[in-house]
Amino acid sequence: MKQYRCGLIARDIHNSITPSVYEVYARDIGMEIDFSLFNIEPEQLKGQVDFCRAHLDGFNVTMPYKQKLLEFVDEADDSALKCGSTNTVLVREGRLIAYNTDGWGLMKALELFGVAIEGKRVVMLGAGGVALSIAYQLGLHGVKQVSVVNLFLDQAQSLCERFGQRFAPVPYTAEDLCRCCRDADLFINASVVGQVGYDDFVSLEFLKELRPGAAVYDVNYSNPDARLVPAARALGLPAWIGKPMNACQGVRAFEIWFGRTPSDHCVRELIDRLQSGTTV
C-alpha cells in the first residue's frame, strides 16, 4: 500500500489534534499516511515550503503563516484568493496550489449538526482571517444576511465590501450586538474573545435576543473556561465549540489531496469523541 506524506507548518504548536484526526480519516478510507508537524521560525518558511514541495503530497498551514505562504505557491483556488490566506496546499507535480478550507469546515460541521444556512440571518463576531474564510462560505451557502460585528469597524467594513450587500458591518457595543442578534438564526464567534490570553464576553445578554432554537458556534477551543457555549446551552440553544470545525476542514483537505472523502459516519464519531474529551 502506498504511503502518502503530508504535514502541518506551524509555530509553537505541540498539541495539535490534526495528526490524530487525519489518521482516523485514513483508516476509514483504507489508506496510509505519514503526517509530520513542522514547527518553524519565520526565517525558515521558504526552506520548509521547498521541502514540502519536494517531498509531500499536501500540507496544512496555520498561524502565523497563512497569509505569507501565498507568496510561495504557484496557483491559488478562489477560496484562498478571496480570503487572502491559505491553510491547505496541494502538491501536484512540483507545483503548489493553495486553498482555504476553514470556512468549509464550519459549514460541514453545521451540516452534520443539522443546522441549515440557506436563507438564514447570521451574526458573526470578528473580521480577521478565520472570519474571512467563514464569510466566503456563508455567501456560497445562500445566507440571507450577515451582520459582521467587530471592535474595529473599518475592518468589518472591509470584509463586507469584499463579500457583497448581504454583509453589513456593526460596531462592537453591547447595544448594537443585542440589536443585530434580535431574531437571528445563527451566532458565530470568529474573534479572539474568550480565547486564552484575551478577555471573555463581559455580557452575554445578546444570546437572549436570538430566535428560539438559534444555533451558536464558537470557533475557539483553546480555553475550556470560555463562557459563550455554556451560556447558550443554559438558554436551551444548540451550541458547539471549535474542534468539530477543525476536524471537518480535514475532510476537505483529504478531498483536495487524495480525491477521497471520509464517511459522514466516521466524521460524526470523531466529532463525538472530540466533544466528549475522549482521546482520538
Report on this model:
With 280 residues, the chain is α/β, with parallel strands linked by helices. It has two domains: 4-101 and 245-276, Leucine Dehydrogenase, chain A, domain 1 (Rossmann fold, 3-Layer(aba) Sandwich); 116-237, NAD(P)-binding Rossmann-like Domain (Rossmann fold, 3-Layer(aba) Sandwich). Helices cover 38% and strands 21% of the residues. It is built from ten helices and twelve strands. The strands form two sheets. A six-stranded mixed β-sheet has the order 2-1-3-5-6-4, sandwiched between helices. Strands 9-8-7-10-11-12 form a six-stranded parallel β-sheet, sandwiched between helices. Helix 6 (153-163) links the parallel strand 8 and strand 9 (167-171). The longest helix is centred in the C-terminal third of the chain and has 16 residues, at 243-258. 45% of the residues are buried.
